[in-house]
Amino acid sequence: xxALAIAIPVAALLGCGGESPPAQAPxxxxxxxxxxxxxxxxxxxxxxxxxxxxxxxxxxxxPPPLAAVLMTDPAxxxxxxxxxxxxxxxxxxxxxxxxxxxxxxxxxxxxxxxxPGMQPDGPLATGSLKEKQHLQTQVTLQPGKCYAIVGFSSxxxxxxxxxxxxxxxxxxxxxxxxxxxxxxxxxxAMCPSASTPVTYRLDILADAGDGxxxxxLYSKAK
Length: 222
Fold this sequence. Notes:
Order of helices and strands: HHEHEEEEEEEEE
Strand content: 25-35%
Number of strands: 10
Largest sheet: 6 strands, antiparallel
CATH architecture of the domain at 74-221: Sandwich
Helix content: 10-25%
Structural class: alpha+beta
CATH topology of the domain at 74-221: Jelly Rolls
Oligomer: single chain
Radius of gyration: 49 Å
């Protein structure tokens, strides 16, 4: 009887169509939303790098001097160029170097030793100078030739010559403090390497004393 009493409740539990008890519902989700994952930090490789600004191209260098140069201060050279550019123009005399006057004779005497084997090239530049006054003229140097520029004065104690190229480049100057300046004195004549003619400004300065002066370009074939 005890066994039967136990069996009946079990049967009752298994009755009612034999259906299993309903499954337990899952617990409701937590109201707290999961924290969003942190965004990955940008790596150095992902960060755009500004393109480096192109370096400024180096300024073109000035052509080398054609003759000896004593003045090297760019500011002083520029001032000299500006002064020469506004100076009065020298008077030009065709075949003037072959004249019989004292200036022409004195200039030819200087050229015998300063420009041996060369001939006058272009007009003779002349003028009367006060102390510290400038005159200017232009000379064109051709390829295939060598040159010297010869000056003379019987009165100016220190006559200076400067060969200038725009915008302010000193291409040669005389190296003496006397009345017989020469640019390109033998054996160091000026022999341009340019393949085309180049026109220079020639500054004529009475650095000490005043009086008449003459300057002549001389040349010979290379």
